[in-house]
Amino acid sequence: MSTRRVVITGLGLVTPLGVGVSTTWKNLLAGKSGLISTTTLPNYTKDGWDQIPSKVIGKVPEGSISEGKWNENDHFEKGELRRLALFSQYGLVATKEALDDSKLDYSNSNKQRIGVAVGSGIGSFHDMYDNAEGYSNGGYKKVQPLFVPKLLTNMAAGNISIKYGFQGPLHSVSTACATGLHAIGDAFNFIKNDYADVMVCGGTESSIHPLALAGFSRARSVTTEFNDIPEEASRPFDAARNGFVLGEGCGIVILETLEHALKRGLTEDDIYAEVKGYGLSGDAHHITAPLENGDGAYLSMKMAVERSGIEPNQVDYINAHATSTIIGDRAENNAINHLFNVSTSNSSSPPLSISGTKSSIGHLLGAAGAVESVFTIKSIKDSIIPPTLNLHDIGKHDDDDPSKFNVFDYVPNVAKSKNINYALCNSFGFGGVNSSICFSKFN
Ligand SMILES: *[C@@H]1O[C@H](CO)[C@@H](O)[C@H](O)[C@H]1NC(C)=O
Ligand SMILES: *[C@@H]1O[C@H](CO)[C@@H](O)[C@H](O)[C@H]1NC(C)=O
Ligand SMILES: *[C@@H]1O[C@H](CO)[C@@H](O)[C@H](O)[C@H]1NC(C)=O
Ligand SMILES: *[C@@H]1O[C@H](CO)[C@@H](O)[C@H](O)[C@H]1NC(C)=O
Question: Which of 199, 251, 283, 341 has the fewest other C-beta atoms within 10 Å?
């Protein structure tokens, strides 16, 4: 296998906890929630939110960038805005933050060796809806010229490549809720295999739309039990968990070879972490429901650990996919038990820590794996693990097997300081997709 080492040198975020890595991270560690009720939206009745049984969403907060919030006019000119779907806007804003953070002097770099791999699960739901409505009411003339390019899931990647002139691999995976993690893993492979020296990678999503929430409600994927207390609606591994919360946002990561980073003068301090191993598999079972024993997730985690050249008991932390659904969290927990139980049940070593950060921001679909990778990377760098909020009765749902939940530390409700050498981030998607990446402390 290639000996090229791949490190992380820049991060960018747009999330329901704020715009920018520092705002989001501070709020996440403080146990804040980015979830709100749809009843607070300006056109609640007019847009039909009122008819949807699920009322909680994770929306990027609106306001000025100086307070770490979202206002499109802080980032784009009017003419530009008309041409950019919201998910592309999030992608461009998080990319700018990540590139600035990396201090990469891209105008004086070989741009054919810099690539972009940014995916989206759904693309522009809003453009799809508006044009369908326009066409249905007014026919051909009501279809916007930019309709097709704006809705394509790879357009955020295209926009990023055009804006910065990056001519390396231009890729965009779309594997539902595993998109963001697959994007980072695939970018890692492009660098490993010498297709590029630097990759801008991650996932972006902006599907907070009444039709999308109606669809997820019909599929019974989203929770309806906590409509009056939105901040308690997402509760991975808790007895009262009952479905996920639809969120939006973007996570971008700058990957490059260690050699490239050192050559341009970065020091150990500038490097966040190293990408060690990538694992991917399929449950081969059902489009939305997991295999009870968690086989797919077991395979992807095992592959990520093996390809990192380590033993399972060297993993200190897992940022779980944990969407807060009854069967999904249970299956993932079963898979983690399968791979880690025996090797970590050594009382002289601290237990494996697992946290479900969707408890704070909801499920960002195609952006989830990228945003959660940023959280995992920050955890390694800062030696602190963000909490699983609303976790009061661990694994006590009627269908849970409590013996499978008493082995690990689920970091309930309060962030926890811990030295992390190796951490996994998990992401799974509709269609039966399972994926994991192992990151490590850089030294
Ligand atoms: C609410 O509806 C009005 C009237 O259609 C529209 O102008 C406005 O942009 C809408 N606001 C939001 C936040 O969607
Ligand atoms: C971004 O993509 C849109 C089409 O979706 C295009 O009209 C626009 O010119 C692009 N902007 C940049 C900066 O690439
Ligand atoms: C593997 O991914 C599928 C698709 O999202 C998911 O239903 C299943 O829960 C995952 N496997 C485990 C064990 O979590
Ligand atoms: C338990 O962990 C300690 C410290 O990590 C190690 O020295 C010891 O060999 C382990 N014991 C077993 C039975 O694995």
Answer: 341
Considering every ligand atom, which ligand is closest to the CA of 339?
3
Element (H, E) at 25: helix 21-29
Q: Give the number of other Cβ atoms within 10 Å of residue 270's Cβ.
A: 17
Ligand 3 atom closest to 432 (CA): 4
DSSP state at residue 113: G
Centroid of ligand 3 to alpha carbon of 102 (angstroms): 34
369 lines ligand 3 (CB under 6 A): no
User: Greatest CA span in the chain, whole angstroms?
Assistant: 71
For 115-144, what is each residue's pLDDT tens digit? 999 999 999 999 999 999 999 999 999 999
For tokens 């998109």, what's the residue?
Answer: 179
Looking at the CA of 321, which ligand is closest? 3
Q: Is 313 exposed, middle or buried (0-12, 13-18, 19+ CB in 10 A)?
A: middle
CA–centroid distance, 346 to ligand 4, in Å, is 6
What are the catalytic residues?
177, 321, 363
Ligand 4 centre to CA of 379 (Å) is 25
Nearest residue (CA) to ligand 1, atom 8: 43
Q: How far apart are CA 6 and CA 276, in angstroms?
A: 8
Query: 32 in helix, strand or coil?
Result: coil
Burial of 133 (0-12, 13-18, 19+ CB in 10 A): exposed
Helical axes 295-307 vs 326-344, angle rounded to 10°:
40
Note the pLDDT tens digit of each residue in 291-306: 666 678 999 999 999 9
Question: Token digits for 297?
Answer: 């997730």
Asked whether 177 and 121 are in contact (CB, 8 A), the reply is yes
| d(C-alpha 5, C-alpha 21), whole Å | 25
Beta carbons of 395 and 359 less than 8 angstroms apart: no
Please state, in angstroms and rounded to a whole number, the distance separating the CA atoms of residues 370 and 368. Answer: 6
Whether residue 323 contacts residue 358, with contact meaning beta carbons closer than 8 Å, is answered with yes
pTM of whole model > 0.90? yes
